[in-house]
Amino acid sequence: MNLNQTRDVLNVNDADLSQSHFVNANLSQTQFSQITMTGTVFNDTNLGASSFNDVNLSSARLNKINFAGTAANDCDMTGIAINDVNLSGAKIENSNLSGIEITDCSLSGLIIDGAPVKDLFEAYHELRASQSTS
């Protein structure tokens, strides 16, 4: 089926549209429920102001994504790999950060529970130095 240069509202139920192609299409205000989109590719796509609820993105690859102003709540990010990401101004609250490893990152201005990390590191190094001389 081909729809070209048309403006229609489609109601699709219990259909197999796998391997379909949408190019230069306006799908604003479209609702997807109980949908399988495994292996779907989104290129040059505007999903601004969209809502994703109870979505499985396991093994997804997110590249060159603008998450500015995005809120992530009640998310399982176990084993997530974050590389070359700008988290400046981000706020992490009520989260389990156990086992996190931070390597080769700028920590300037990083604050944990109200304490600047720079001050924490300085106090830690001073304590270690005093313990090694005792």
Describe this structure in words.
The protein has 134 residues and is largely without helices or strands. It has one domain. The chain has one helix spanning 117-133; strands at residues 111-112, 115-116. A two-stranded antiparallel sheet has the order 1-2. The longest helix has 17 residues, at 117-133.
Q: What is the share of helical residues?
A: 10-25%
Strand content range = under 5%
Computed structural class: little secondary structure
Averaged pLDDT, please?
92
Low-pLDDT segments, ≥5 res = none
Instruction: Report how far the terminal alpha carbons are from each other.
Output: 81 Å
Rg over CA atoms: 23 Å
The major beta sheet can be summarized as: 2 strands, antiparallel
Say what oligomer this is. Answer: single chain
Apparent shape: elongated
Order of helices and strands: EEH
Q: How are the SSEs ordered, and which strands pair?
A:
Layout (H helix, E strand, L loop, with lengths): L110 E2 L2 E2 H17 L1
Antiparallel strand pairs: 1-2
Describe the structure in brief:
The protein has 134 residues and is mostly loops. The chain is built from one helix and two strands; from the N terminus they run ββα. The chain starts with 110 loop residues before the first strand and ends with a helix.
List keywords for this structure.
2 strands; single chain; little secondary structure; 134 residues
